[in-house]
C-alpha cells in the first residue's frame, strides 16, 4: 500500500503539531517555512481545520492561527478525518461518505480484511492525541519501514 492517507491528512497533522509547539498566533508563512509545505497548499489544509473548529484565526498584523483547544483534546483520528473528508477507510468501498456503493460488496471475500484494518487503524489513531506527537518521547525510528 503506497499510502493510506493523502498529503492533506499528513500535512494536517504536521500543521496541528506545529501550532501546538508554538504559543500565540502563528502565521501560515512561518508554518510553511518550518514544515516545507507551500503556503497555497497550507491554506487549503488550514481551511478544513478551521471549518472543523480545530483552529482559530485572526486577521491582520500579529494574527495567524492557533489551536482552539489544548493538544490533549484532539485525537489524531479526528484531525485526519477532518482533513480526509470524514473517513479513514483503507479502501474506497468502505468509505461511508462516498456516494458510490461497491457492486461486489455482498460477495467480496476481501471485505472483512479491509473492514478489520479500518477498525484497527481508527482505534489506534483515536487512542493517540496531538500531545503525543508534540512531546519528544525519544521513540523516533531510524528506519521508517519494516522490511
Task: Measure the end-to-end span.
Answer: 14 Å
Strand arrangement in the largest pleated sheet: 1-2
Low-confidence stretches: none
Percent of sequence in beta strands:
5-15%
Helix content: 40-55%
CATH architecture: Orthogonal Bundle
Number of strands: 2
Q: Quick one: CATH superfamily?
A: Winged helix-like DNA-binding domain superfamily/Winged helix DNA-binding domain
Mean pLDDT: 86
Structural class by helix and strand composition: mainly alpha
- In the CATH hierarchy, the third-tier topology is known as Arc Repressor Mutant, subunit A
Summarize the helix and strand pattern as letters: HHHEEHHH
**What is Rg?**
17 Å
CATH class: Mainly Alpha
Oligomer: single chain
Count of discrete structural domains = 1
Topology:
Elements: H1 7-21, H2 28-35, H3 39-51, E1 55-58, E2 64-67, H4 76-84, H5 111-127, H6 130-134
Helix pairs in contact: 1-3, 1-4
Gist?
With 147 residues, this protein is mainly alpha-helical. The chain has helices at residues 7-21, 28-35, 39-51, 76-84, 111-127, 130-134, and strands spanning 55-58, 64-67.
Walk me through the structure.
The protein is mainly alpha-helical and 147 residues long. The protein has one domain: Arc Repressor Mutant, subunit A (Orthogonal Bundle). The chain has six helices and two strands. The protein has helices spanning 7-21, 28-35, 39-51, 76-84, 111-127, 130-134, and strands at residues 55-58, 64-67. It has a two-stranded antiparallel sheet with strand order 1-2. Strand 1 (55-58) and strand 2 form a beta hairpin. Helix 1 crosses helix 4. The longest helix has 17 residues, at 111-127.
